[in-house]
């Protein structure tokens, strides 16, 4: 591990932990999907025959459930038993509300949440909205399983490492002495320890992440990205286009009918950027997308809903105004941040490190926990030195992708 870090620091290469592929998380994804879809089908089958009337209290309860679902997605961590309960309950709740929305459409050709669009081609927008919520909770199950695995790997890497390469052990003592002499002769001790620190914090060590880490930026979330957050970011761009497709005559007024197409185009571009960038940049792209694309979009939608509910005038002609604002502000900013990545943002004069520090949030995704040795070393010289295990092998790559393959 020390020699790989030495090569990485001197030759600007990438180190990844070599782990076997693991498909077990998808069993949990299928279980969450099955529970939500089953409830969706059961609700439709149970209510289809007598078309119940959904009163104002039921609609208000549904809207409250929607906000609770959003809060759960945004603020409940992807780890622990609570996350598993929230994911399955959320999937079931989304399936039930989607089923009720479909019944309302079949019985009255309306939608009990989207009151602006009057007629629909196939289903009202509420149905795909809550079905997408079901998928997000299922994706959170995959995130939860990946977090468990990543923490296990991190514990293996930390075990037995004191924070100094001089304490490293090897099966052949002569090799250890030769490597340490070469490192000390070149004056690379600090650089090697820094490369190992990034590897332990992130699960990989790349030039961009080492540069960010050297500037005091917490890069622990850069190595892993959340599947649910990727899907949520993509849908924040695409949802208005889905509503446009399901509604007869469109959802936007005459002056704003271009908005769904621009938002869908931005979503497609963001998805292409995410799939094409290197793995060490994906955590930053997802975190920035969440901060820039998802949260402001939800805030603007909520503001419009409150305004629509509390004014006497019809606000429906302005239904697409929040997305029009996003199309020219936060949407392009999310695309620019995904395109620049960590290294590109760091090259921005003066404010580059602040940009990365602002948008690379440690609680999005599955950051690795730092050991006490790491925290004490950071207090001494500004670097997070964690612990490593020589039993976990590392592989040197000039350019590689996600080790979840």
UniProtKB/TrEMBL annotation:
Which domain of life does this protein belong to? Eukaryota
**TM helices/strands, residue ranges:** 29-48, 60-77, 89-108, 284-304, 324-342
For the keyword Transit peptide, the answer is: no
Q: Where is this region: Disordered?
A: 368-405
Question: Where does the record place Low complexity bias?
Answer: 384-393
Keywords assigned: Membrane, Transmembrane, Transmembrane helix
Compositionally biased residues, Basic and acidic residues? 370-380, 394-405
Q: What is this protein called?
A: Uncharacterized protein
Tell me what organism the protein belongs to. Zooxanthella nutricula
């Amino acid at each position: 591990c020390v020699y790989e870090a030495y090569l990485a620091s001197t030759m600007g290469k990438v180190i990844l932990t070599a782990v076997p592929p693991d498909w077990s998380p998808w069993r949990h994804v299928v279980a969450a999907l099955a529970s939500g879809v089953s409830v969706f089908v059961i609700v439709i089958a149970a209510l289809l025959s007598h078309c119940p009337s959904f009163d104002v209290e039921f609609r208000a309860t549904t809207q409250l459930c929607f906000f609770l679902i959003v809060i759960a997605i945004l603020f409940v961590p992807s780890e622990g038993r609570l996350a598993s309960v929230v994911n399955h309950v959320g999937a079931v709740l989304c399936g039930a509300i989607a089923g009720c929305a479909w019944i309302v459409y079949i019985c009255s050709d309306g939608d009990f949440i989207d009151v602006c669009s009057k007629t629909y081609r196939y289903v009202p927008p509420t149905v795909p909205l809550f079905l997408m919520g079901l998928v997000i909770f299922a994706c959170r199950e995959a995130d939860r399983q990946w977090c468990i695995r990543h923490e296990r790997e991190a514990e293996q890497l930390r075990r037995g490492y004191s924070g100094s390469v001089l304490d490293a052990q090897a099966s052949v003592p002569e090799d250890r002495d030769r490597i340490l002499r070469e490192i000390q002769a070149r004056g690379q001790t600090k650089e090697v320890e820094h490369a190992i620190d990034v590897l332990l914090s992130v699960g990989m060590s790349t030039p961009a992440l080492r540069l960010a880490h050297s500037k005091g930026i917490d890069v622990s979330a850069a190595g892993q990205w959340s599947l649910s957050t990727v899907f949520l970011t993509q849908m924040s761009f695409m949802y208005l286009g889905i509503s446009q497709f399901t509604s007869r005559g469109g959802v936007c007024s005459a002056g704003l009918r271009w908005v769904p197409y621009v938002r869908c185009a931005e979503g497609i571009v963001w998805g292409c950027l995410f799939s094409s960038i290197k793995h060490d940049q994906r955590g930053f792209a997802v975190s920035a997308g969440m901060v820039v694309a998802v949260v402001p979009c939800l805030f603007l939608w909520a503001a419009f809903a409150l305004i629509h509910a509390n004014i006497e005038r019809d606000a429906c002609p302005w239904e697409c105004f929040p997305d029009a604002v996003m199309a020219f502000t936060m949407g392009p900013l999310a695309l620019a941040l995904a395109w620049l990545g960590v290294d590109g943002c760091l090259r921005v004069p003066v404010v580059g490190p602040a940009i990365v520090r602002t948008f690379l949030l440690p609680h999005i995704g599955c950051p690795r926990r730092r050991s006490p040795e790491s925290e004490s070393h950071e207090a001494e010289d500004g670097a997070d030195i964690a612990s490593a295990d020589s039993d976990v092998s590392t592989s040197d790559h000039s350019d590689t992708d996600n080790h979840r393959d």
